[in-house]
Write a structure and sequence with these properties.
5 helices; alpha/beta; five-stranded parallel sheet
C-alpha cells in the first residue's frame, strides 16, 4: 500500500524503542505518516530520503543526540518543524543557549502526553 502523500510525514526518534514506537503509532492513528527510529544517527540517515515535515526527538540519546540531529536536519530541511522532548530538566538551559545561536525548537517534557504532542504538531 503506498504512503498517503497528504499526511504530514513525521520522523520520531528515541533510543527507548517502546517510546519511539508508541509515539509513532499514536501519530499514525491521528492523521500523520510517522516513522520510528532509535538514534540520532538514524535520523540523519533517513531524513534525506524520507524528507519529513516534522521531527519529534528525544534529546538524550547515545551518539548523535537529539539537539545535534535537529540542528543538522534544520540545515538540510529549513522548513521542518522540530519538537524535542526530554525527561532531564537540565536540557532546558541548554536549549536556551541553542536559541541564542539562532536555532528555535519546540520542547515537551517527558512523559509526553499524546494530546500535547498532537496539539503541538498541529500548530
Amino acid at each position: 500500500m503506498p504512503a498517503d502523500s497528504t499526511k504530514p510525514k513525521v520522523l520520531v526518534a528515541d533510543d527507548e524503542h517502546v517510546i519511539a514506537d508508541t509515539l509513532a503509532m499514536i501519530l499514525n492513528k491521528n492523521g500523520f505518516e510517522a516513522h520510528a527510529v532509535y538514534s540520532g544517527d538514524k535520523v540523519l540517515e533517513m531524513a534525506p530520503t524520507l524528507r519529513p515535515d516534522m521531527l519529534v526527538s528525544d534529546i538524550h540519546m547515545p551518539g548523535v543526540n537529539g539537539i545535534e540531529a535537529a540542528i543538522r536536519i534544520r540545515e538540510l530541511l529549513p522548513d521542518i518543524k522540530i519538537l524535542l522532548f526530554s525527561g532531564h530538566a537540565a536540557y532546558a538551559g541548554y536549549l536556551e543557549k541553542i536559541r541564542a545561536k539562532g536555532y528555535e525548537f519546540d520542547f515537551l517534557a517527558k512523559p509526553v502526553h499524546p494530546d500535547d504532542l498532537i496539539s503541538r504538531l498541529n500548530t
